[in-house]
């Protein structure tokens, strides 16, 4: 591991070597550790507008998933799995606990971390719950991309949509896939609203490369994932992790990820919580999202 202090007085950037990859991460703030796991092609920079509204309450961990931006793969030809992503988070949280002194080395019990996962990040969080019980104290799973949560017919429809997006991407690249992704997530760019003053996020070559990896590689990780809902429910009971399924207030109820969140709530016998905006509300409404996170996760 290497770490360097960033220009912000409370921010630290570093790299962590994990099996098969090297992860780039960022820590900012103070308080309980809260890991934000992004959706889609999102790397640590996609939460630049959200993190500053959380650092007065939490030590916020953001990172680039393996294969995105600054997180490199030892063997780019090797498939990336959901299990890989979950194991990465467990190791990253252990490193964050070491840096913040909450790993139990001083005699106290290690503190379970908080995690808010969005879309792909939410599905990864559910994998962490199943593979690494006790690592998370609370998990917010916002509209997880997890077809296995749905009944068979809906699951097959969800998988077929994802594979159709992959086919469009294989033919015409990321730009050809964007309209299909927007339809899949219930996003209408013509009527998209956001908070004011957001940091521009142009479609740079790095973001296009991240989309290529997300669609070409990580969609396959999602559609071939074998995590069973019954196993997930049992893991939640055993671990004692508080799981909060979440939906966007403006997401259409027929969107598959919205239905996955409802299915997760039904599986766990709880009610979903509502977040501002739609599927990408955490980037479109960062201030409101921060208020919601603080209300749900506050000390």
TrEMBL record:
Keyword Hydrolase part of the UniProt annotation: yes
What GO molecular function annotations does the UniProt record carry, in alphabetical order? hydrolase activity
Keywords of this entry: Hydrolase
SUPFAM superfamilies per record: alpha/beta-Hydrolases
Q: Which domain of life is it from?
A: Bacteria
Q: What is this protein called?
A: Alpha/beta hydrolase
